[in-house]
Each structure stands twice: as C-alpha cells, then as structure tokens.
Amino acid sequence: MYLIGLTGGIASGKSTVARRLFAHGAVHLDADQLARRVVEPGTPALAAIVAEFGEAVLQPDGMLDRAKLGEIVFHDEAAREKLNAIVHPAVRTLAGKLIAKAEAENSDAVVVYDVPLLVEARVDHPFDLVVVTSAGRHEQVKRLVEERGLDPIQAEARVDSQASDDERRAIADVVIDTSGALAHTMSQADALWARIVAERAAKAQG
Ligand SMILES: CC(C)(COP(=O)(O)OP(=O)(O)OC[C@H]1O[C@@H](n2cnc3c(N)ncnc32)[C@H](O)[C@@H]1O)[C@@H](O)C(=O)NCCC(=O)NCCS
Ligand SMILES: Nc1ncnc2c1ncn2[C@@H]1O[C@H](COP(=O)(O)OP(=O)(O)OP(=O)(O)O)[C@@H](O)[C@H]1O
Questions:
Q1: Where along the chain do its domains lie?
Q2: CATH code that applies to domain 2-204
Q3: Where does the record place it (predicted)?
Q4: Which residues surround ligand 2 with Cβ inside 6 Å?
C-alpha cells in the first residue's frame, strides 16, 4: 500500500485533488466524513459532546446540530480544543481501522487520506507522502463567501482557527498550488499521480 496524507486549509481544494486521484484509481478516505460518523446518535463521542456543551447542541431528532456547535467552536479556542479532544481520538482510531482494511483488501492500493487538520491534530499515520493544497488566505475566504454562502466574519473565523499555510508547507513533501485556475490544480494532481506510478514501478523492479 502507498499512503498519502492530503491536507490543506478550508476551501483550499483538498477534495478536488482527492477526487482527481480517486479517478486515477486511488482509494479515498475523508476525515470530515469520519468525523461525522463518530458523532452519530448513540456514540460515546456524541454523549461526551452533550456532556460538555449541553443538550442545546442537539437537534430535536437527536442528531448533532452542526451549525450551532460550529458557531461556538469557531469563535472560541478553548471550546474548540475541548471538541477536538473528544472527536480527534475517535477519528484517529476509525481511520487506522479503515486504512488497515484498505490494505487487507488490496496490498497494492494507493490510499489518499484527506485530513484537514493533519498539522493541528498531529496526525501520525505512517504516510509515504504528505501533500498540501495551498490557495492562500484571501482566496480561501473568497471561496467560502462566494461559493458556500458564509458571511466574511464566519469565513475568516474558520480560516483563522486553522494552522497557517506556512505551518502546513513545513511538513509537506509536495505542495499543490490551488490559487489559480482549476485546470492548473488538475494538472498538478495528474503529475503527482504519474510520479507515484513511476516511483512504485521503479521500486517493484528493485
Ligand atoms: C464544528 C463542526 C460541528 C462544524 O460542522 P460543519 O458541518 O459546519 O463543518 P464540517 O465538519 O463539514 O467541516 C468543514 C471544515 O471546517 C474545518 N474544521 C472542522 N473542524 C475544525 C476544527 N475543530 N478546527 C479547525 N477547523 C475545523 C475543516 O477545514 C473542515 O474541512 C464540525 O466541523 C466538527 O465536529 N469539528 C470537529 C471535528 C474535526 O476536527 N473535524 C475536522 C477533521 S477531523
Ligand atoms: N484552482 C483551484 N483548485 C481547487 N479548487 C478550486 C480552484 N479554483 C476554484 N476552486 C473551487 O474551490 C473550492 C474548493 O473546494 P474543495 O471542496 O475542493 O476544498 P476543500 O479543501 O476540500 O474544502 P473543505 O476543507 O471545506 O473540505 C471548489 O468549489 C472549487 O471549485
């Protein structure tokens, strides 16, 4: 198996790159999706969130009210750290299981683990390659406002609750510049895939 850790700031284009690698044949795991699974009704993580933040963060149907919890944690670092301490260990355990499952199913698989908070949560799965998408703060805020309907204050709060591009670049093996045209992002993803294929072929030949 070849394990890629893919990270980048919010709206920097991680999913866009991951989808392209998936189209080439990679297995795609998404930490945001895993973070949703571990807080489904009946889970220990959801019980811990309610114990910490109160019943007010639940919808009438018992599901987590994500908008309400987001309003709290993206404006309050101490609250965010409490939430992270509940959710991140559960995500880490589930990711470990799913990576092992992908390897058991196909020991040749290329697995792309899309993990927004790789730096912040000190995620330490044994990555063969760490790939960072980087669009820049101004472009991230613009996308959140224009494409996802956040107001500028909410958008800036989300971007600023994360590590900086410089901190992410410091741990990157490969940086994909996602600030320009979509086609430029795609061609960098294609070049990355070609590099992985070539590296693996060279390794297989000894
Ligand atoms: C606060 C919550 C309820 C808001 O939910 P919402 O549906 O609005 O956002 P969603 O989960 O789709 O996340 C969107 C993006 O926000 C950013 N983000 C999410 N959580 C965090 C966090 N704790 N710190 C910084 N950025 C975050 C990421 O870039 C993520 O891709 C939710 O994000 C959450 O439970 N976060 C804690 C778990 C976590 O850290 N998830 C991120 C990957 S493990
Ligand atoms: N050059 C580019 N590369 C990637 N995405 C781009 C580019 N130009 C514009 N975009 C837009 O930016 C958005 C990036 O969204 P995407 O879901 O890929 O980011 P993400 O980093 O996975 O976000 P999140 O952290 O919220 O999961 C998309 O709407 C995409 O169309």
A1: 2-204
A2: 3.40.50.300
A3: Cytoplasm
A4: 8, 10-16, 32, 116, 143, 147, 178, 180-182, 184-185
Ligand nearest to the CA of 159: 1
- Measured by CA distance, the residue closest to atom 25 of ligand 2 is 10
**Which atom of ligand 1 has the smallest separation from the CA of 69?**
3
Q: Which of 1, 16, 6, 5 is nearest to 184 (CA)?
A: 16
Per the listing, tokens 């908008």 go with 67
Ligand approaching nearest to the C-alpha of 177:
2
| pLDDT recorded at residue 156 | 97
When the pLDDT of each residue in the chain is averaged and rounded to a whole number, the result is: 96
Interatomic CA distance for residues 197 and 200, integer angstroms: 5
DSSP 21-38: HHHHT-EEEEHHHHHHHT
Q: Specify the amino acid at residue 66.
A: R
**Where does the pLDDT of residue 203 fall: very low under 50, low under 70, confident under 90, or very high at 90 and above?**
confident
For 86-97, the pLDDT digits (tens) are 999 999 999 999
Residue 100 has pLDDT above 90, yes or no: yes
Instruction: Give the distance (Å) from ligand 1 centre to CA of residue 84.
Output: 9
ipTM of the assembly? 0.95
Q: Is the CB of 13 under 6 A from ligand 1?
A: no
